[in-house]
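Contributing: when you submit paired examples, paste them exactly as shown. First protein:
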Amino acid sequence: MTETVHYMERTRDYYRALGYPSDYVWSRFDTVPFTHLAKPLPQVKIGLVTTASPPDLGNRDASGKRQVWSGTVSLAPARLFTGNLAWDKESTHTDDRASFLPIEAIQRWASEGMVADLTARFHGVPTEYSQRKTMEIDAPQVLGRLRADGADAALLSPL
C-alpha cells in the first residue's frame, strides 16, 4: 500500500518548522500565459527546460547565486546535479537523466513524425523561493533562449 504525500501541507509544515512567521504563498495566475499551438504538433520544434543543475554547478553568477543555464543536446551529460533539490531521496533517485530531461524520447518522437524536431540546446532553470526572481529574471531569459533556438513549444520537466 502506498502512502499519499500531501505536498502542500508538508511544505507548510516544513516552513513552520524552519521558523518562518507565515506560510509560503504559492504562485497564482488568473490569466495563464499559455496558448494553443500555432501549427500541428508534427510541425512543432520542441525546446526542453529542466530544474536540474549542470554537473559542474557552473550556473552561478559572480555572487554565487544560481542562474539560468543552457546545454547542448548532442553533448548532454549522462547525469545532472540534483542534490540541491528537494525530493524523496530515500524512495527514488535521479540517476536516470532521461526521466527528467527526455532528450532521447523527443528525438524518437521526431524520427516517428510526432514532432518536427528538438532544439539544439536544452535549458536549466534554478529552483528558487523567489517568485519575483523567477518571473522577472529567469522566465524571460528562458523564453528568450527558446525563441533564439527556434522553439515552437517548450516541454517543462521539473524535478
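Second protein:
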Amino acid sequence: MGREQKMKQFAVIGLGRFGSSVARTLARMGYEVLAMDADAERVNNITEEVTYAVQVDAMEEEALKSLGLRNFDVVVVAIGQEVKASILVTVILKEMGVPKIVAKANDELHGKVLQRVGADVVVFPERDMGVRLAHALVSRNILDQIHLSPDYSIVEVVAPARFVGKTLEESALRKKYGITVLAIRRGEEIVVSPGARQVLQEGDVLVAIGRDDRLKEFEE
C-alpha cells in the first residue's frame, strides 16, 4: 500500500486584502493555513477562519525559524507596499530552505528583483485581476475561469446558440477548437464526461478545458 499523501500546508505572510483573501480561500478549500502579520488587528480578523494566525514581524529571521516555515509546502509573501520588506523576507525564506515561495509584486521591477532573490512564482494581483476582469467583461457567455497555466484554462461557459441542438461530435469542439468538454451542467443535473452523441440544449453550461486563445474563439 502506498503511503498516505500529507495534506499540503500553506503559510501566508502579510494579511492585507490580497494575503487575507489567499489565506481564507485556501482554508475554505480544506488546507492547513498559517496566517501571519505584524498587525494584531489583521491577525485577530482572520483567527477564526484559518488553522493558525500569529502576530509576528516577518523581518525577524529567528521568529520565522521558530514557526518552522521550511516545513511548509508553500509560503506566500503577500507583504503590501513595503518593497524592501518583501524582498528581505523572500531572501530569509530562501535561505531557510522553503520548498516553494510565491511572492506578490507591485510592479515589473519589483517582480524581477523577487525572482532574482529566490521567489519561485511572482504574482501581480492588481494587474492580473485587471486582466481577468477585462476578459470577463468582453466574454458575455463566460461564467468562471480557472487558469491552469499561462496558456490553458478550465472555463464554465454557456453553450453558444449556434451549437444548441447539435451533438458534441457535430459541434466539432475538439476537432475545430481543441476543446474538451469535461462536464455539462443542465439545471440541477450534471452530466460528467459527456459522450460524443450528447445533444447540447439551450441554457447548458459547459465545463471545458483548452488553450485560452482557442477558448476565446469558441466563446465569440
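If you have annotations for the second protein, write them as plain sentences, like these:
The chain has two domains: 9-124, 139-219.
The longest helix spans residues 83-96.
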